[in-house]
Amino acid sequence: GEIGLDYHYEDTDKNKQSNVFTRQLEIAEKYNKPIVVHSRDSIQDTHNILSNYKLKGSIHCFSGSVEMAKLFVKLGYKLGIGGIITYKNAKNIKEVVKNIDLSYILLETDSPYLSPEPYRGTKNDPSNIPFIAEAIADIKNVSTIDAARITTDNAIAEFDFL
What we know:
Elements: E1 2-6, H1 14-30, E2 35-40, H2 43-50, E3 57-59, H3 66-75, E4 77-81, H4 91-99, E5 105-107, H5 129-140, H6 144-159
Parallel strand pairs: 1-2, 2-3, 3-4, 4-5
Helix pairs in contact: 2-3, 5-6
């Protein structure tokens, strides 16, 4: 599952979240396990905390700036890119994908949320991954097959699938 920080709601206890997140990172580090990081309205704090650990994994449903993307990549993380990349008004994430090497990108769905076009607004599932791969391939000016192959290799390496 995901671990991380979520400051979206007003009644959020940021200190408690930070303490729990830190403990989870310590466990991941102790057992040398990759992590999937949830960061909602908390990207700078997430980066600041992660910079204290030597871990690998992904920043789930990345929605930050190009500058933040480069900082996470520098720490060794991959960026999870989902259905939002297919939305017409998703200029920010398209700029991130354009400016980050494909070797740092993972495909994800965030099921059951954030279905890609043409299924936006419906329940998402992993069968929608090809739409995400195609959108990324278009931005990177590579074939969909190459985008799928590279991002699959990224996932295999990042999460020790083999």
